[in-house]
Amino acid sequence: MVEKASRQFFLFLSKNKLLNNSAKKWGLKFGASNVVAGETIPSVIETVKKLNSQGLICTVDHLGEFVINKDEAIESTDYCVKTLEAIDQAGVNCNLSLKLTQLGLDIDRELCLNNIRRIVQTAKKYNNFVRIDMEDYAHCQETLDIFNELRKDYDNVGTAIQGYLHRAQEDLKDLKGTSVRLIKGAYKESPEVCYQDQTTIYDNYLNLIKQHLLGGSYTAIATHDHRIINELKAFTDGKGIPKTQFEFQFLYGFRTELQREIAKEGYTVRIYVPYGNDWYGYFMRRLAERPQNVSFALRGMIKK
Ligand code: FDA
């Protein structure tokens, strides 16, 4: 009950544009620096170097919410291109994650498509890969449509599927043969489109991962849930699925011991490292997921 209320509260806060805009001027506050790797490209590259030296590979995400004009969308695109250049120059093992709304999806679909093409083309030039995050339900179909257009021309792009959605299984079938990140889903969605019960979400999520793996497709398993990780280790082992066909993904700052433990066992572990001054919405969604994450924030408030 309290957990549900806390989730609703932080998801509500995550959508507050006024707080989001103010937070850009505050610097990384309230413990956000525990889960966001600085505000600039050099700071995120330093973090990636450290993680690489610990046997962890990365994907970086330049945080951005509420992009509402063309200039902001182009600025975000430029930033993604610069990040790919910096990754190449630093020679680190890291790809790029992004959200299509940052590139103008809410403004003009063609603008967004041109922007993402420019980024994927740059990644191609550097032999790198771009992962399109999945956002709230309102953007799900458009995200898949744009991904399907891109995959006609590029093989260095993938997207993500949320296990809490009723439509997830059908969507995943269409993505057979592509690299998919599977997640439970982080947004507040209605019962019409999304399972609400944690056990159902857990079972559906696990089945989707197995479906994609058994289809021979590359699978990014993005969860902090050790029960799922353990079950999938046994499953892939039992089915003879090679460790090169999947990776585990964690968010920066979460379950760091587990990350290292799994990497030591010879699994590929990729850390999703967010950076930038637009940290507010991302941080609120993390607080919503797990009430214990609030202790991060409280410790951060005491330290600052
Ligand atoms: P969940 O929060 O369901 O917890 C399940 C159990 O795992 C807990 O009961 C506890 O036992 C254990 N556990 C979890 N976190 C723990 C912790 N910090 N410490 C100790 N135990 C813990 N969402 C989205 O909608 N679109 C996207 O594109 C992405 N991308 C993405 C990338 C990556 C790399 C990750 C890890 C996650 C995302 N997400 C996402 C977020 C995702 O949808 C989901 O909201 C969170 O991962 C939370 O679900 P989990 O399965 O991790 O554990």
TrEMBL record:
Known cofactor(s): FAD
Catalysed reaction, written as an equation: L-proline + a quinone = (S)-1-pyrroline-5-carboxylate + a quinol + H(+)
Binding site for substrate: K99, R285, R286
Free-text comment on the cofactor: Binds 1 FAD per subunit.
PANTHER family in alphabetical order: PROLINE DEHYDROGENASE 1, MITOCHONDRIAL (PTHR13914:SF0), PROLINE OXIDASE (PTHR13914)
Pathway(s) served: Amino-acid degradation; L-proline degradation into L-glutamate; L-glutamate from L-proline: step 1/2
An example Gene Ontology molecular-function term: nucleotide binding
Keyword Repressor assigned: no
Alphabetical list of Gene3D superfamilies matching this protein: 3.20.20.220
GO biological process: L-proline catabolic process to L-glutamate
Residue stretches making up the Proline dehydrogenase domain: 45-296
Entry EC no(s): 1.5.5.2
Record-given protein name: proline dehydrogenase
Binding locations of FAD: M134, Q162, K184, G185, A186, T223, H224
Keyword Oxidoreductase: yes
Entry keywords, A to Z: FAD, Flavoprotein, Nucleotide-binding, Oxidoreductase, Proline metabolism
Pfam families: Pro_dh (PF01619)
